Amino acid sequence: MDERAEALDRDDPLAAYRSRFVGADTDLVYLDGNSLGRPLAATGDRMRTFVEHEWGGRLIRGWDESWMELPLVVGDELGLTCLGAAPGQVAVADSTTVLLYKLLRAAVAARPGRDEVVVDTDNFPTDRYVAEGVAAERGLRLRWVETDPTAGLTTEQVAGVLSDRTAVVLASHVAYRSAWVADVPAVTRLAHDAGALVLWDLSHSVGSVPAELDAWGVDYAVGCTYKYLNGGPGSPAFGYVAARHLADLAQPVTGWMGHADPFAMGPGHTPDPGVRRLLSGTPPILAMQPLRDMLPLIGAAGIEAVRAKSVGLTSYAIELADELLAPHGVVVSSPRDAERRGGHVTLGHPRMREVVAALWRRDVVPDYRDPDGLRIGLSPLSTSYGEVRRGIEEVAALLAG
């Protein structure tokens, strides 16, 4: 290993956490934590215990004993650990797409008489597709902001499209392609000054970039849990609703689990007065179990320390790209300013699609995104500096071959 990588790993205050993740001690170089995080070793034991004792031992009694409240218990812990959200505002359920639909529909309903939704052209596809569907259902107009795929949505761009017709601004905290960190408090203030609401997608930031949803005045937010939160493939999403909006939240999928008294089973739907009203059907209790290990781990490390390690890893990746990859024509397609950069780095080159395929065959695992982008997703608690070095060296070798 390079001496600099060795020194960075030796001085890393979070280095000891790496051994807690399955596979971290193997030769595989995993640079895709922004798509799917490694599992914690403790989660295997938790899942086994859950099956044998909670599910197998308590059976239906589990609902009365803890499962009914688990979406809110885990939501509160997530809010405290990563989101800057006071209790009673976060629920874990569904997928990001479903919760995005629920909250976008609720947001436009909360602004009657306004008929525009602001969304940027480089937002994650699901966000754009859901916005298109809601616009078609509700007879709304999408106000598209043309964003640079190597950067992201700016406050100036948002200011230029807001009007008294704007109902909602839908945007991502961290851009999925470039890792651009949006100025959430500034964009939120602009939207509020125009009488609009904001809905932020935190999928590419939660667990690596701290959020302060309450302090920033955010109205609604969603995000997934399988990236930097290591919840596993298809793990449930979360939705945040600011306390001031809960009493009027009119989400469109009114199921029994969001009812004020689910077991009354009477005529008509009376929504729960709290964030539970965001639920619809039976929550995925089994799929929440990995989060019960990962959230305390982030809490122990501290989200600010996690962010510092994230900045260190991405800065080192850019340093290596400049040294080893730029001579082959690779460009850094992510912000160089660490304040504007999330937890991944995108490297551009016309051959990156074939390079990524070849890397996977060598047990080096980043991912690819059009156009011509190799993304290096650096999950702070499970990724070492030496791993980053080995990955970049393999990219250089393939480009040189």
From TrEMBL:
Catalytic activity line of the entry: L-kynurenine + H2O = anthranilate + L-alanine + H(+); 3-hydroxy-L-kynurenine + H2O = 3-hydroxyanthranilate + L-alanine + H(+)
Gene Ontology MF annotations: transaminase activity
CC cofactor: pyridoxal 5'-phosphate
Protein keywords: Aminotransferase, Hydrolase, Pyridine nucleotide biosynthesis, Pyridoxal phosphate, Transferase
UniProt pathway annotation: Amino-acid degradation; L-kynurenine degradation; L-alanine and anthranilate from L-kynurenine: step 1/1; Cofactor biosynthesis; NAD(+) biosynthesis; quinolinate from L-kynurenine: step 2/3
Classification via InterPro entries: DegT/StrS_aminotransferase, Kynureninase, PyrdxlP-dep_Trfase, PyrdxlP-dep_Trfase_major, PyrdxlP-dep_Trfase_small
EC assignment: 3.7.1.3
Function of the protein: Catalyzes the cleavage of L-kynurenine (L-Kyn) and L-3-hydroxykynurenine (L-3OHKyn) into anthranilic acid (AA) and 3-hydroxyanthranilic acid (3-OHAA), respectively.
Family recorded in the similarity comment: Belongs to the DegT/DnrJ/EryC1 family. Belongs to the kynureninase family.
Subunit-structure text: Homodimer.
Protein name, per record: Kynureninase
Organism: Nocardioides lentus
Lineage per the UniProt record: Bacteria, Bacillati, Actinomycetota, Actinomycetes, Propionibacteriales
